[in-house]
Amino acid sequence: MKRSSGIQQLQTILPFLTGLRWRYAAGLLLLAVTNGCALTIPWLLKLAVETLRHPAQGSWPISLYAGLIAALGVLHALVRIKSRTVILHAARLVEFRLREALFKRLLSQDLSFYGRERTGDILSRFANDLTNVRMLVGFGVMSLINTVIIYLAAVWLMVRISPWLTLVAVGPLPVMVLLVRRVSGRVFSLSHEAQEELARLSSLAEETIAAVRVVKNSCREGWFGGMFEQASERCLEKNLELARLRGLVLPIMATATGGGMLAVLFVGGRQVIAGSMTLGDFVAFSGYLALLAWPTALMGWILTLVQRGAASMGRLDLLLTAQAALVHNPDDPAASLEQGLHLQRLSFSYGGRLVLQEVSCFIAAGERVGITGTVGSGKTTLLRLIAGLLPVGAGQLYLDGVDVTRLSLDSVRRLTGYLPQEAFLFSRSINDNILYGGSGDALRSATQAGLGSDLAGLRDGLATVVGERGVTLSGGQRQRVALARALAQEPALLLLDDPLAAVDAGREEEILDALATNWQGRTVLLVSQRLSAFRNCQRVLVLAEGRIVEDGSPQELLRRGGLYAELARLQGQAV
Q1: Which regions of 244-352 does DSSP assign to beta strands (E)?
Q2: For the chain, which has fewer Cβ within 10 Å, the N-terminal or C-terminal residue?
Q3: What is the chain's alpha carbon radius of gyration, rounded to the nearest angstrom?
Q4: Cα dihedral angle (557, 562, 567, 573), rounded to 10 degrees?
Q5: Which H or E run includes 512?
Q6: What's residue 4's pLDDT?
Q7: Whole-angstrom Cα distance, residue 391 to residue 173?
């Protein structure tokens, strides 16, 4: 069952071999030539030996045989190098296509996918699993073709010399192949387990490095070191078990080859002594049997390579076949926001846990709406749904009266400027981070985001490289760079998820004043726990347990004395 599943996994490679059949055909031809050279040498040795024994009967001088053998040896080496280059280059192209397809598939996934998958696991598939597949379609295919050619030709020539001696030489091989096939099934399952352990190890390393500040601040280096050691030991154990199993294959095949050689030496030697076989025939037969020694031992390696490649391709196929809940279709109508945004009984759940429950409201174009509420009430999820980052059910979200599920997803996202709660910066300059993926006035956007005074204090200003994830900037500076990025797109719909969380009160005033001048004619949804952020908002939506429990202007909500007024009292605001 495991072997058949391995073959099924290998079938998924076929689309990536399109257009490479001529490369593999050329490799096949070159391998045929190189093996032809190798197979001709023992026959020339046979003729040379017979000439030495009977000089008068020799048609060619011995020096000519020596020259031909040397020339064939050189040709054999040159053509073998070329054959390896052609086939291994094809394998690199397959790896390139797979990597491109994997990356495009990852970019097409929505946030739900990344909530399920581990980053380290994905990186492990890009590195180790791709290498295993490349080895399969490169060295594996080359070795398989080479083995088939050498076996068919060598055995045919050996039968021409002595059918009986051929049977003696290759007789043990079928038994050995059956033994290797039994072992290879376990190799497949162990390969998959070893790759999974390596993925867990990679995930732990990536997560620990990303959270190194928390680890050090909590003095948990020893604890994380212990976790890594345990994961590393499990990975080592699986790989050692796999290595032991793979190591068993080579001795099995070597035993078959060695047994065949001993049998040929005993039986063939007696035939030469008895005169039923010439010494030249025996030399040629031994030469052909020697040519079979390496391919025979290689059979076991090929089988294990196939199983490892199949296991890795199975892991890659999980990514290649992952279907995004959000589908890009550029032929759908483009989104616009001239009338407004309508939410109609909008609901959403994470893994069966209901986060938003039948949220309904209408937001007119150009309206500025604040969103607040209790922790975990679905504020961030609501913005992600509107931004097109999470799947929305049909009939739940409308832009200008058109169901968002019927609109081009790209146009919905271009319409929207989204500032996530956790600002992420690339290891590039501030200018590149602000204008990431687009164009605009970086300095103007930075000023609107309250970053102007900070730029004056940086040696390189907008050209300052911020380091990985913006490590050289403070939390508030990272937040403002991300805010400037959202503003630089000049979107019709601006979605701000707690943009003031990492700034002090003085900087909050500066940012709100700058934003107020930029909000004219733009629809804005602002999520914040600070109610002071809503001073320029016309309405505020208050969420609790995934529902809108209050809707009105800030002053009106304060007069009602509900949840908004309670939050205001807790923050020391006048009610």
Answers
A1: 340-350
A2: N
A3: 35
A4: 50
A5: helix 505-516
A6: 42
A7: 57
Q: Which two tokens stand for residue 333?
A: 């109508």
Domains of the chain, each with CATH number or no CATH: 14-320 (1.20.1560.10), 340-570 (3.40.50.300)
- Beta-strand (E) ranges in 216-262? none
Rounded to whole angstroms, how far apart are CA atoms 268 and 253?
A: 22
- In this structure, the strands spanning 547-552 and 402-403 are unpaired
Give the pLDDT score at 120. Answer: 72
Instruction: Return the closest-CA partner of residue 132 out of 194, 220, 66.
Output: 194
φ and ψ at residue 158, rounded to 5 degrees: -65, -40
Secondary structure element (H or E) that encloses residue 218, with its range: none
Cβ proximity of 487 and 417 under 8 Å: yes
Using an 8 Å Cβ cutoff, are 249 and 186 in contact? no
At 49, the amino acid letter reads V
At 22, list the tokens: 């001529």
- What's the one-letter identity of residue 128? N
Under a CB-based contact definition with an 8 Å cutoff, are residues 26 and 208 in contact?
no
Residue 191 CB neighbours (<10 A)? 28
Per-residue confidence (pLDDT) for residue 342, from 0 to 100:
92
Q: Could you give the angle at the alpha carbon of 494 between the alpha carbons of 435 and 366, nearest 5°?
A: 130
Mean pLDDT by runs of 10 across the 575 residues of the chain is 51 80 88 86 80 64 82 87 88 89 83 74 80 86 86 86 82 68 68 76 74 66 78 83 72 67 78 80 82 73 77 82 71 81 89 85 90 88 88 85 85 84 80 76 81 78 78 77 82 85 69 72 87 87 91 89 86 60
- β-pairing, 353-364 vs 340-350, is antiparallel
Angstrom distance (rounded) from CA 402 to CA 406: 7
What's the predicted TM-score (pTM) here?
Answer: 0.69
Encoding tokens for residue 66?
A: 């020596």
For residue 363, report the phi and psi dihedrals to the nearest 5 degrees: -120, 115
Helix ranges, 54-129 (H): 62-108, 111-116, 119-124
C-alpha to C-alpha distance for 268 and 291, rounded to whole angstroms: 17
Q: At 331, which amino acid appears?
A: D
- Angle of helix 279-320 relative to helix 141-161, nearest 10 degrees, comes to 160
Three-class secondary structure of residue 572 per DSSP: coil
Q: What is the pLDDT of residue 219?
A: 67
Distance CA 66, CA 60 (A): 11
Other beta carbons within 10 angstroms of residue 549's beta carbon come to 15
Q: Which residues contact 166 (CB under 8 A, 6 or more apart)?
A: 155, 158, 159
Question: Which residues, including other chains, have CB under 8 Å from residue 18's CB and lie 6 or more apart?
Answer: none
DSSP-assigned letter for residue 471:
T
Q: What is the DSSP annotation of 178-235?
A: HHHHHHHHHHHHHHHHHHHHHHHHHHHHHHHHHTHHHHHHTT-HHHHHHHHHHHHHHH
Tokens encoding 427: 């290891």
Contacts for 139 with CB less than 8 Å, ≥ 6 apart: 88, 91, 305
Strand 523-527 with 402-403, pairing: unpaired
Contact 17, 94 (CB under 8 A): yes
